[in-house]
Design a protein that fits this description.
Largest sheet: 4 strands, mixed
Radius of gyration: 25 Å
Distance between the termini: 75 Å
Strand content: under 5%
Order of helices and strands: HHHHHHHEHEEEHHHHHHHHH
Helix content: over 70%
Number of helices: 17
Structural class: mainly alpha
Shape: globular
Number of strands: 4
């Protein structure tokens, strides 16, 4: 209690040390609170629209799919969508409370001062601050993750995980996060403190280089820690896939089958890796559900992304957004109102209020907490771009394979994954990275005579 009271007094004293800082701090607090409230209300409104729209169309299969999708499958998809959306509202409420707890209610400030008292300032204290923050966040998210896996996914027949496997994945993920994340975090924090005014540019270069390296090593060294990858053994299918890739001018290091059924009944296929480390990965559940022609069509769609350079375009966009983020962080980290406006006493020497410990970890965490509140407009823009890319990949697949095979494969995947055929249009425009089935099939039909 004494620590909490002392921290509150420190924060009050710091805020009122200079009048301009108080004004800027209060203004930023109000702006942050208003942006958070508007964002939450928008998401609540969109989710309610989605649930009402899906429920209203639950008892009738869209005419375009009436001969291929059963009413029972359509209703299962509707119920699954509503259950996930309703649970998403609970996660939104919890996330909002946690965000306020870390920021305006002083949680991050208290944690920082507690670690300063216990460890003093320095790199170890900053790493500990980020690590403890991540640990607490993970523990808060744990019940929701368990419920989603063992209640929602279980109820609809998708979950194949045991509690032991689920817990093992969590522990391995945490270990990998510490082994990989802490060293790169230490480098970023060191640059923030030692590289001068342009530290953010160096930090951005290091971060991008790290991500490119991760893309190279992930398929061979990290992914096998969580799943088994076996070379594709079906010689007939392998010959078809290889011929398709050669026809499209694409080369991969190998064709692999992943034991996706060990964890879920959801099916998928994807490319992973970068440069010479590229791999084609099929979920075993996908190969169980699709015939050879449909597998060809799905793979041709993925090849379409490479043919149109969608991966490179997304990487360039990500690099640009990340550069903008680091530049903004570089400026905000030197503004006292940024800290106090979010409920944190920075480690500046102002009338003896706080010590001279670095603010770098504080600035980084506050930025990660606040940025999503102000960047809601980015989500629909990115979703729109992604849907456009999906249409282009579909068009390429139709050129390389039969449109009927791609349509059949997509409908099987929609049905097996319980993806609703009747989402709310506004919800789609804001969130969906892939076009709804009706739009995709209609688009393909326009491409074929």
């Amino acid at each position: 209690m004494r620590v909490i009271v002392a921290d509150a007094l420190h924060l009050i004293a710091f805020r009122f040390s200079t009048a301009p800082l108080v004004t800027l701090s209060l203004s930023f607090t109000l702006i942050f609170a208003a942006a958070l409230a508007l964002g939450v209300l928008l998401k609540l409104w969109l989710a309610s629209r989605q649930m009402r729209h899906v429920a209203a169309h639950r008892n009738a299969v869209p005419s375009l799919f009436a001969d291929r999708i059963s009413l029972a499958a359509h209703q299962k998809a509707a119920d699954y969508t509503i259950a996930k959306t309703r649970f998403g509202l609970l996660e939104l409420a919890l996330g909002t409370v946690v965000l306020l707890g870390w920021t305006l209610l002083g949680g991050l400030d208290a944690l920082n001062h507690w670690l300063l008292d216990a460890m003093g300032g320095g790199m170890l204290q900053q790493l500990a601050l980020v690590a403890v923050f991540a640990l607490i966040g993970g523990l808060i998210d744990l019940p929701g993750s368990y419920y989603q896996t063992f209640v929602i996914e279980q109820r609809f027949g998708f979950n194949k995980m045991t509690p032991g496997l689920w817990l093992g994945d969590l522990l391995k993920g945490a270990a990998m996060g510490a082994i990989i994340g802490l060293p790169i975090l230490a480098v970023i924090l060191w640059l923030m403190g030692a590289a001068g005014r342009w530290w953010w540019l160096w930090a951005w270069a290091v971060w991008m280089g790290f991500n490119l390296l991760l893309m190279v090593i992930y398929p061979a060294f990290i992914a096998p820690l969580f799943n088994k990858f076996q070379p594709l053994e079906d010689e007939s299918l392998k010959a078809r896939v290889t011929a398709l890739m050669q026809r499209c001018g694409f080369s991969a290091k190998g064709l692999f089958v992943m034991d996706g059924s060990r964890r879920s009944q959801h099916a998928n296929a994807y490319f992973t890796g970068f440069g010479a480390s590229k791999r084609v990965v099929f979920f075993d559940t996908l190969l169980q559900k699709l015939n050879a022609d449909e597998v060809d069509a799905v793979l041709a769609h993925e090849l379409g992304h490479f043919k149109h350079k969608h991966i490179i375009k997304r990487m360039v966009a990500l690099f640009a957004l990340t550069l903008l983020g680091f530049a903004l962080l570089g400026w905000l980290s030197g503004q006292g109102w940024f800290y106090t406006g979010l409920g944190v006493t920075p480690n500046f020497n102002v009338q003896g209020v706080a010590g001279s410990a670095p603010n770098d970890a504080l600035a980084l965490l506050l930025f990660l907490l606040a940025a999503p509140v102000f960047s809601g407009f980015v989500a629909p823009l990115m979703a729109h771009s992604s849907r456009k890319h999906e249409f282009e990949a579909d068009a390429y697949a139709v050129q390389q394979t039969r449109a009927q095979d791609l349509q059949s494969a997509l409908l099987k995947l929609y049905e097996d994954n319980a993806s609703t055929l009747t989402p709310d249009p506004l919800y789609v425009r804001y969130y969906y990275s892939h076009p709804p089935a009706v739009e995709r099939i209609s688009h393909m039909q326009q491409l074929t005579p």
